Amino acid sequence: MEVAEIHNNKCIDNRCYECVCNLYERLFSMYPVSLTQKKIFYVWMKKLMDEKGYMLIIPEMQSDFNRRFCEMVSNPDPFAEQKEKSNQIAMSLYVKWKSIVLSDKNPFDLALRLSIAGNIMDYGSSNSFNIFQTIKNALNSNFAIDHSLLLKEKINKANHILFLGDNAGEIVFDKLFIETIMHHNITYVVRGSSILNDATIHDAQKIRMGMVTDVISNGDDSPSTILDRCSIEFLENYKNADLIISKGQGNLEGLINENDPRIFYLLVVKCNVIADLLKVEKGSMIVYNYKEK
Fold it and tell me: What's the predicted TM-score (pTM) here?
């Protein structure tokens, strides 16, 4: 089995190059660019990965890839249409599921499962997904790593919760989870600017996240949480939080080597690299805390 290599606290893997190429092939199919432009982009991208692969993780390099692509197609937000569609689909499901969650015998577990199912809404990892089937799977499957009881305990004891969001659409299910746990002090975090289909302040405003919790950006355009690139405001919240809920693979890649016992990772495992790293099957849903392992 090919296993991710850890070097200087960075996770790298040759399979990541193929995954990134697949992403930009999908993007190139959406925008008119010449074959020469594509070739130049891929040569530059491979060169950057070869040069910086031992210093950076893929989400850090993605910000460079994204900036270059956006300049090439003269569009600062290539996934804007997909993000809007994701938010609309999720909001329609929110209306359906809110009453079901509130009347359920275990609203915490149901809302948690829906929040994790929402992580499948990711155009960065695939050109399509089935949120309806994923919700069905989430309701009828066990978590491959299940530290949910500890998470519930920590939520009940926490003074300040920092909630790291991931994708547009997905954040609607996070909103339902936040409403369900009814904690008095949660700060929800989105990306500093448009990157892939990750949620920004604009997306948070569209779904009225501010009605249930404080919302800030992390100040960075990586599809992740890279602490040394984040804003002072975010870092103050990070320092002062006694519980951190981290959604998605990108945030996991940015924070996994912090070995921070405050962090609970909630996600659908979407690639073999992360599956190998966590020793679970691709497609698994997990609630993972480093301290518990």
Answer: 0.92
